[in-house]
Amino acid sequence: MANLTIRDFDDGLKAELRVRAARNGRSMEAEVRAILTEALSSRPAAEPGPGLGTRIHQRFAGPVEFELPLPDRHDLPRAADLPR
């Protein structure tokens, strides 16, 4: 069994949990286990979604809203001026 520590738990929320646990005749720890079990077992099984590459493509694919001006290409390439 695993342990779970919850930090920065709101005092009001803790009080509500204590009342709910008492109403259900359980300890606070058992109540948290019941809440998590109910929340996680009632959701449908996760289906694999698109991969990372597909998600990146979807994010950036779309109509281009601007055009960059292309520079004139009349000059020949030159050697780089590197410091000696």
Automatic annotation (TrEMBL):
Short name of one Pfam family: FitA-like_RHH
Keyword Ribonucleoprotein attached: no
Gene3D superfamilies in UniProt: Met repressor-like
SUPFAM superfamilies linked to this entry: Ribbon-helix-helix (SSF47598)
Domain Antitoxin FitA-like ribbon-helix-helix per the UniProt entry, residue ranges: 2-40
Keywords noted in UniProt: DNA-binding
InterPro entries for the chain: Arc_rbn_hlx_hlx (IPR013321), FitA-like_RHH (IPR053853), Ribbon_hlx_hlx (IPR010985)
An annotated GO BP: regulation of DNA-templated transcription
Coiled coil: none
Keyword DNA-binding tagged: yes
GO molecular function annotation: DNA binding
Name of the protein this chain belongs to: Arc family DNA-binding protein
Organism of origin: Amycolatopsis suaedae
